[in-house]
Amino acid sequence: MTRSMTPANYAMVQQLELMMRLVRHVPLEWVVAWCNPRCEQRAASALGDRGVLTYLPVVAERRQTGRDKRWVDTYRPMMVRYLFVGLDVAGGETVDMVRAADGVEGLLSVERGGPAVRVPVRDLTRVIATSIASFRGREIEVGHRFRLGDVVLVVDGPFAGQQVVVKGIAAGGDAVRADVSAFGGEIAATLPVDSLKASA
Description:
alpha+beta, NGN-like_dom, 2 domains, NGN_dom_sf, NusG-like N-terminal domain-containing protein, 24% helix, transcription, three-stranded antiparallel sheet, SH3 type barrels, single chain
């Protein structure tokens, strides 16, 4: 189900399409910063101040305000605490710059303290494409009856084809939290319920 695109969502789609072109055509090494809780924007700003390109994946969300029950269009993180960082290695940018940035707790790696995982461009473009689809108006359906511990199949988005276990449910029931396989390991992700179906 889709809804019409608001001017704000149209502007976000334009920004995301620009990011998609940058990812595809600028030779950067992409790594994933693990940020302190609720510090993704702070980390992105700190790295941006040093000229480092970052991408914080978000998806569109429509929610009702508290008292007057108006519907507002907003967005939420697609992967809580994760920030993609594009390093210009030829220009002298290093993972140490990322580790030292305000708001960054560490880097995603296969082994604790090991080298940072490099994110393939094809994987990152799938994440961006999912974000673009949400801002183009793909409606999130509320009312799915997933419970903690349910095994579900991801049928849409960058993690399509994976079976995951529901570890948390967002307020309103429009998204679940689960660990998914990505970038050579397991990461926590927030998945819209309309991208899931009960596993057979």
